[in-house]
Amino acid sequence: QCILPVRIWVFNCLLDIAQILKLRTLLNCAEVCCTWKAIIQSGTLWSQINFSVEKDWITDGTMKQILQNYRPFVIHLNLRGCTFLKWPSECKNIQDLNLSECFNVTDMMVQRIVEGCPCLLYLNLSCTLITNKTLRELSRNCLNLQYLSLAYCYRFTDKGFMYLTTGNGCHNLVHLNLSGCTQMTVNGFRYISAGCPSLKEIVINDMPTLSDSCVLALIARCQCLSVVSLLDAPHISDVALKAIAEVAKLKTFRTQGEICYSIIYTSTERTEVILFHLCCLMTDASLKSVAKLKNLHNLDISLCNKVSDTGIQYLTEGSSSTKLRELNVSYCSLITDTSVMRIAQRLCKLYHLNLSYCERLTDMSLEWVSGSSICSLDISGCNIQDQGLASLQGIFLKKLVLAGCVSVTDVGMEKLCKTVRDLEHVDVSHCGALSDSAIRAVSFYCRGLVTLRMSGCPKMTDMAVQYLTSGSQYLRELDVSGCVLLTDRSLRRLERVCPPLGSISMVCCSSISKVAALKLRPHVKHWEHSNDNPPYWFGYNMGQIVSPVTRPIKTDDTKWRISSQC
Length: 566
Ligand SMILES: *[C@@H]1O[C@H](CO)[C@@H](O)[C@H](O)[C@H]1NC(C)=O
Ligand SMILES: *[C@@H]1O[C@H](CO)[C@@H](O)[C@H](O)[C@H]1NC(C)=O
Ligand SMILES: *[C@@H]1O[C@H](CO)[C@@H](O)[C@H](O)[C@H]1NC(C)=O
Ligand SMILES: *[C@@H]1O[C@H](CO)[C@@H](O)[C@H](O)[C@H]1NC(C)=O
Ligand SMILES: *[C@@H]1O[C@H](CO)[C@@H](O)[C@H](O)[C@H]1NC(C)=O
Ligand SMILES: *[C@@H]1O[C@H](CO)[C@@H](O)[C@H](O)[C@H]1NC(C)=O
Ligand SMILES: *[C@@H]1O[C@H](CO)[C@@H](O)[C@H](O)[C@H]1NC(C)=O
Ligand SMILES: *[C@@H]1O[C@H](CO)[C@@H](O)[C@H](O)[C@H]1NC(C)=O
Prior knowledge:
Blueprint: H1 8-19, H2 23-29, H3 34-40, E1 48-50, H4 60-70, E2 76-78, E3 96-98, H5 107-116, E4 122-124, H6 132-141, E5 147-149, H7 162-165, E6 175-177, H8 186-195, E7 201-203, H9 212-219, E8 227-230, H10 238-247, E9 250-256, E10 261-266, E11 272-275, H11 284-290, E12 298-300, H12 309-316, E13 326-328, H13 337-346, E14 352-354, H14 363-369, E15 376-378, H15 386-391, E16 399-401, H16 410-419, E17 425-427, H17 436-445, E18 451-453, H18 462-471, E19 477-479, H19 488-496, E20 503-506, H20 514-520, E21 526-529, H21 557-565
Parallel strand pairs: 1-2, 2-3, 3-4, 4-5, 5-6, 6-7, 7-8, 8-11, 9-12, 12-13, 13-14, 14-15, 15-16, 16-17, 17-18, 18-19, 19-20, 20-21
Antiparallel strand pairs: 9-10
């Protein structure tokens, strides 16, 4: 039956099927008949081999056989965790080889492998027992190597990298992962700097031994670096941070307090600096060096509560004062209205300002913000009163987040909306004093309203929804969670404005029936509803016994924990 010709489409079809089969099935199929064997022997099936998945059953004999038979086709080979390894004499088209966790790999084997694989681009040797000799072989044979992982290899020393500076070297290396190589000292980084001028990305995570001098030695000559990952390097200080910042042409600098890392982007290509534990160190002095960056477009120092008005002053007088578009200083509890004044006056291109939970800010801040370039403002959890809202003017504000501003009343909202009519996104969640009149004002004056969040406003009634559905013809997103007085009547009105309304959240709306809520569901893309009583943190005092179901967003454990650490 082997001679029977197979139509080409049948062949292709079987080939497609073969492509999704597991290696073991594939090998069994090859024994069915000649046609199947021919299909399975076609090269395309063998360009990527993953022995890692098969390592529990495959024998060295089978593996060797497969590599022997198909070696001209193999391009990607994953041997991760295969503790045995038999290498055929040559596999010269391999570009991508993963030997990580192959504990039996010796320097001798690596030597044989790299001598036979001149095209190698990616080599993963993480968690192996290779030593200096492997580095010597790489330097002799792997001229094209671009990606190398030596993470968690403890047996080589600084000297190993000396080989990279001599001989042919690995001058094309672009990515190097040295995570966990705690044996490395400043000398090793000096060699890398000299031997790998094209290095763009270096991963040196999980290195408690890493010092500033290592980082300085590295960047001395690696001027193309655009990604530096330093997770869990607790001894890195401002000095290294500053140096890294100077090497890269930075566009974004971001320290995210919550998980303590910073990311830097360049204008031409992505530059990333990930610095764990630095947020806790972010001080006015570090902001001074950040302020020297020339292309800073976006700065996020939320939760860096050591930063004070002095730090903000450096920033506003720094090289990027006319470039900065977004600034997040939320939870920076030391900064005062003075900083807001400097921000509003000097950062003339600022588009987005996040001042949420800056506890010291008062109504004065909103006066300073008046007349500025800011289009999007978050003052959640600030001590803002009606007077502050009334003073906002001369500003094309499109987005305003006032969540948790508990002192704000309908009067303030009305004054605000009368003057700031461009608002499209309004968030008054947990502004417990607001009632229907506030919504009337928003919907009457701000004709372009697209998003409204008023969750946790217990005074809202069906009237509020009526104002919205008759006045806000562009409304797409509405959150009325915890508006316990809303009834099914509101839902009938909302149904009439779908579309544009496409997103509705009605969690903890105890007076809206499931039946009515479900009726609305087919008309919207996003839908949420529950009849639960609002959780205690909504702060309602309605005599209901409520169970603590959800944690408050604003008092999220991790945030508080981190901010008290910092
Ligand atoms: C190979 O198999 C391993 C183990 O199942 C898996 O983690 C890995 O993602 C696979 N790699 C490729 C390139 O398919
Ligand atoms: C092994 O390394 C290759 C690159 O060499 C990669 O494509 C693959 O995802 C890695 N496999 C793992 C993590 O098992
Ligand atoms: C190298 O192998 C390790 C697993 O040992 C894996 O975590 C890592 O992602 C691999 N690198 C690449 C680029 O696949
Ligand atoms: C691989 O190494 C383990 C210990 O690391 C050893 O027990 C085993 O015999 C080695 N296997 C081969 C084939 O060398
Ligand atoms: C690596 O090089 C250093 C310095 O030359 C040497 O002391 C060490 O013994 C070498 N290690 C191995 C395993 O060759
Ligand atoms: C660096 O190597 C470690 C260990 O193999 C791996 O878990 C990590 O994902 C790698 N990091 C990058 C950015 O490749
Ligand atoms: C800071 O604010 C910006 C814009 O307001 C936002 O994109 C970013 O996620 C915020 N940072 C954190 C840590 O939430
Ligand atoms: C302001 O920053 C906080 C993080 O502190 C974030 O949760 C919030 O979403 C940001 N506001 C806006 C409007 O992006």
